[in-house]
Amino acid sequence: MAESWLGCTARGPDSRLVLTITGGGADQILIYSCVLLSNTTCLSFFLFYHLQSIFVGPFCTIGSEAKIGNACKLHTGSHVIGNTELGDNCCVLSGAIVGADLPGRTIIGSNNEIGYHAVIGVKCQDLKYKVGDECFLIVGDNNDIREFTSIHRSSKSSDTTVIGDGNLIMGSCHIAHDCKVGNNNILANNTLLAGHVVIEDCIHTAGAIVIHQFCHVGSYSFIGGGSVISQDVPRYIMVSGDRAEIRGLNLEGLRRHGFSTAEIQTMRKAYRKIFMRRDANTESFEDRLSEVELNRELAEVSAVCSMVKSIRDSFTESRRGICKFGHWRGS
Ligand SMILES: *[C@@H]1O[C@H](CO)[C@@H](O)[C@H](O)[C@H]1NC(C)=O
What we know:
Blueprint: E1 17-19, E2 29-32, E3 36-38, E4 41-42, E5 45-49, E6 52-56, E7 61-62, E8 67-68, E9 73-74, E10 79-80, E11 84-86, E12 91-92, E13 97-98, E14 104-108, E15 113-114, E16 119-122, E17 135-139, E18 144-145, E19 150-152, E20 161-163, E21 168-169, E22 174-175, E23 180-181, E24 186-187, E25 191-193, E26 198-199, E27 204-205, E28 209-211, E29 216-217, E30 222-223, E31 228-229, E32 237-240, E33 245-249, H1 251-256, H2 261-275, H3 285-294, H4 296-299, H5 302-313, E34 324-325
Parallel strand pairs: 6-9, 7-10, 8-11, 9-12, 10-13, 11-14, 12-15, 13-16, 14-17, 15-18, 16-19, 17-20, 18-21, 19-22, 20-23, 21-24, 22-25, 23-26, 24-27, 25-28, 26-29, 27-30, 28-31, 30-32, 33-34
Antiparallel strand pairs: 1-2, 2-5, 3-4, 5-6, 32-33
Helix pairs in contact: 3-5
The protein binds 2-acetamido-2-deoxy-beta-D-glucopyranose.
Protein name: UDP N-acetylglucosamine O-acyltransferase C-terminal domain-containing protein
Keywords: Acyltransferase, Lipid A biosynthesis, Lipid biosynthesis, Lipid metabolism, Membrane, Transferase, Transmembrane, Transmembrane helix
Organism: Platanthera guangdongensis
């Protein structure tokens, strides 16, 4: 078995345990105050890793291949197993499991908090995954991953599930195999991403959202509570509903992220030209996109171009198109 209970790898003098972990540049960790309950379970101990201390609570597992960064805290009954790297200053709360004994790797950056009973970097649920194939998960820095969230590794060795930096992933979320989540997103509780979903940056979901596999969610968009997303959400847009529809620009999100009033006004003009045309039937959608791009005043605002690009990209090969337009409050 690749994994071993911490404290069982080797025993030093005075019932101190000496554990060899190859990670992080040093290869020896001295464990103090260890009370052995059995030869597989330690009750309580501290690790001192060079001068920086790592805290490991009772009933934790650290796999023999795991690498734990400086100043990490593993709370009671948390587990870091398999070929898993935990960066500096991470906190793994009780019941959380990081990594699995599978070929491939789980890499977690620095300053991440992994909530109670979260399950991060385990085998995916895709039936195409073949036992024995390598699979990967990479998580960046400064993420807050809350209780009961699960994040799966890729479904094949040529792909990787990726989470960027600064995301708040609230309780009971699911991020499936091969998803790519960018930076500074807020996923409210029970946001469920199917396989291969792409989330760009600074998006916000309300609670209880499901996103169909292969959908893309553009930066600065907002997804209303209880939505079912089965097509792409363009950048800066707000959608909601079962088979979510476009409801307007994400005005509140844009303001919060520091877009100026002038920028937002211009984006509104572009939005109206694209989605709210009286002559909608006489012009193709593509014509409307081109018209916005060719309009100097509109194209001057980079967010307008970025919105048009994001819509266009959704109609390229193998993409799913965008959510239908469903007028709500206007924008
Ligand atoms: C869901 O999220 C909200 C914050 O938006 C939080 O206050 C609430 O406690 C959460 N509920 C659960 C069950 O996690």
